[in-house]
Design a protein that fits this description.
Layout (H helix, E strand, L loop, with lengths): L27 E5 L4 H16 L8 E6 L5 H15 L6 H8 L2 E5 L5 H18 L5 E5 L6 H10 L11 E5 L7 H14 L5 E3 L7 H11 L13 E9 L8 H4 L3 H19 L8 H13 L1 E2 L4 H4 E11 L2 E3 L17 E8 L9 E6 L6 E8 L19 E7 L3 E9 L7 E9 H4 L7 H11 L8 H20 L4 E5 L5 H8 L9
Parallel strand pairs: 1-2, 1-4, 2-3, 4-5, 5-6, 7-12, 9-17
Antiparallel strand pairs: 7-13, 8-11, 9-10, 9-11, 11-12, 13-14, 14-15, 15-16
Helix pairs in contact: 1-2, 1-13, 5-6, 6-14, 9-10, 9-14, 10-14
The structure holds NADP nicotinamide-adenine-dinucleotide phosphate (NAP).
């Protein structure tokens, strides 16, 4: 019998000993939409990787719910194939054999009451056979339109009820709403069934090591925080660039676009972590308080026409291949106004950041796949080298490379060897791959484990989601009423308008 109790805390372990791995207590995971892309590529492999790392309890159970007419064995085969193809850690037969003991499949549609009854019996049976202790997380990896019906079915069937000493949790994928109004409506549905501490909204960026490292960089060191403010920082650039197009996801993407898909969640969360004040602890409440405060202080530019840009990729070249434009993609309305590129200038109304612009940009079919936060510092107030330096001195920068090539770069001026006092920009690099032998867990591994442990630090709260939509809604409304997205050639760094936006401020985008 595992010494772990239902809440995931281990009473036998000294809480001060942080070297011990965090192992989930008796529990199970139900995945709705288990035949989907996300489940196959990310969720099932993450469950296996957790099992392989010894972080799941012995009787851990995985229940798949979907429409297909499968038996448990068919489901197990699908999980097996997904794990073989996508898991991060090597396949080990003994781990697999243990995991398979708790695997079940429930067939049904979301509006089928009887299917939810069958799910209930399956869970009761697993509690007896596997010792899951009544602790189950329900992962909604389903089309966003189906979130409310699944939540309501969980209530109706009694599956959301927590009996004494056990827990039930809901995990909700993105996008959380389409705008503020729909996010508020969804929050209402969710909170009619679950208490706030039972709800885990996924923003998988927060599961990334490099994103959590923003907090370590800022608050576990002394040398960065004193200059992390308007007295030294000139501006901040947050970029998430993809080199691919929409692939087969026209149905999902058209009508949503880059700003809703990426800025509302990932980039505003990165902004919050970069700009927030130090939380009193790394606990969920303290973190949410600081993130909420800073998101509440974000101010949109007065001139949305000048300081926001949206674009759409046109045909061009990518990785040596000729590619078509967004409007020619399968399933896309040739008149579509959906943005595949979006850039915004934001300011933060507080003492630390007043007057420092935060430039956010994201896009598909850009020059390179990269996500980074660049904190760019003001130029030295006086340069004694002007006469001899061949170029204008650059600006110091700290660049947090979120992906790929995870790490941190510090850029500064250095003397070029020789007799003259020539200064040139150089970089000092920290790369995860070189400094640590352990490879980073996948974001979904970390987040699924956190759900099972009941750790809510890395999950955005209701207020954060709603504040983010409050920031984005006026921009989307402005875009709806004004013209069309600018076209940009695939494989470039976005529309010329985005370069002009920064040029007007005397700045330029980084070319990572
Ligand atoms: N894919 C990604 O990389 C990604 C990334 C971030 C977030 N997300 C989010 O994650 C969620 C899932 O995405 P996905 O790409 O995996 O979607 P998907 O491939 O379209 O899969 C949707 C799943 O929902 C099931 N489903 C749909 N309607 C149903 C109904 N009425 N009754 C029962 N099952 C139903 C489908 O089952 P059938 O097989 O029976 O149709 C399928 O298993 C979405 O909210 C998405 O926005 C996805």
């Amino acid at each position: 019998m595992s010494p772990l109790n239902g809440s995931g805390a281990n009473p036998l372990r000294d809480p001060a000993d942080r070297r011990l791995p965090r192992i989930a207590g008796p529990s199970g995971l139900v995945i709705f939409g288990v035949t989907g892309d996300l489940s196959r590529k990310k969720l099932m492999p993450a469950v296996y990787d957790l099992a392989n790392r010894g972080l799941l309890p012995p009787g851990f159970s995985l229940v798949g719910f979907a429409r297909r007419d499968w038996e448990d064995e068919d489901f197990a085969q699908v999980v097996h194939d997904a794990v073989k193809e996508h898991a991060r850690t090597p396949f080990r037969e003994e781990v697999w054999q243990q995991l398979i003991q708790g695997m079940r499949f429930v067939q049904g549609t979301f509006d089928d009451d009887e299917a939810f009854e069958r799910l209930r019996s399956t869970i009761d049976e697993l509690d007896k056979q596997q010792g899951t202790g009544g602790n189950f997380a329900f992962y909604l990896s389903v089309p966003p339109g189906a979130f409310p019906v699944v939540i309501q079915q969980l209530k109706k069937s009694g599956l959301a009820d927590q009996s004494k000493g056990s827990w039930r949790r809901a995990v909700i994928e993105k996008p959380f709403g389409h705008d503020l109004k729909s996010a508020e409506e969804l929050n209402k549905v969710v909170h009619e069934v679950f208490e706030p501490d039972q709800v885990f909204r996924i923003d998988h960026y927060l599961g990334k090591e490099t994103v959590q490292n923003i907090l370590a960089l800022r608050f576990a060191n002394t040398m960065f925080e004193p200059i992390w403010n308007r007295s030294y920082v000139d501006h901040v650039q947050i970029t998430m660039a993809e080199d691919i197009g929409i692939g087969g996801r026209a149905g999902y993407y058209d009508g949503i676009g880059a700003a809703r898909d990426v800025i509302q969640n990932h980039l505003l969360q990165l902004l919050a972590l970069t700009a927030m004040e130090e939380p009193s602890s790394f606990g969920a409440d303290a973190l949410a308080r600081e993130k909420t405060k800073v998101l509440g202080a974000v101010r949109l530019p007065k001139d949305l026409g000048a300081d926001t840009v949206r674009g759409q990729y046109a045909a061009g070249w990518q990785g040596g291949e000729k590619v078509i434009g967004y409007l020619q993609e399968d399933g896309i309305d040739p008149e579509s106004k959906t943005d595949t590129y979006a850039a915004l200038k934001l300011e933060i109304d507080n003492r630390r950041w007043a007057g420092v612009p935060f430039y956010l940009r994201t896009g598909k079919r850009l020059g390179r796949r990269v996500t980074e936060i660049a904190v760019v510092f003001q130029r030295a107030p006086h340069s004694p080298f002007d006469h001899t330096a061949t170029e204008e001195l650059g600006q110091n920068a700290i660049v947090i490379r979120v992906q790929p090539d995870e790490g941190i770069t510090v850029r500064f001026g250095s003397k070029v060897p020789g007799t003259s006092m020539e200064i040139r920009d150089v970089s000092m690099d920290f790369a995860y791959g070189e400094s640590f032998t352990e490879s980073s867990p996948e974001a979904y591994e970390r987040l699924i484990l956190d759900v099972l442990l009941g750790d809510a630090n890395l999950f955005p709260r209701t207020e954060e989601v709603e504040l983010s939509w409050k920031i984005l809604d006026p921009v989307e409304e402005y875009w709806d009423e004004h013209g069309r997205p600018a076209q940009y050639k695939s494989g470039t760094w976005g529309p010329a308008e985005a370069d002009e936006m920064l040029a007007r401020d005397g700045r330029s985008w980084r070319r990572p």
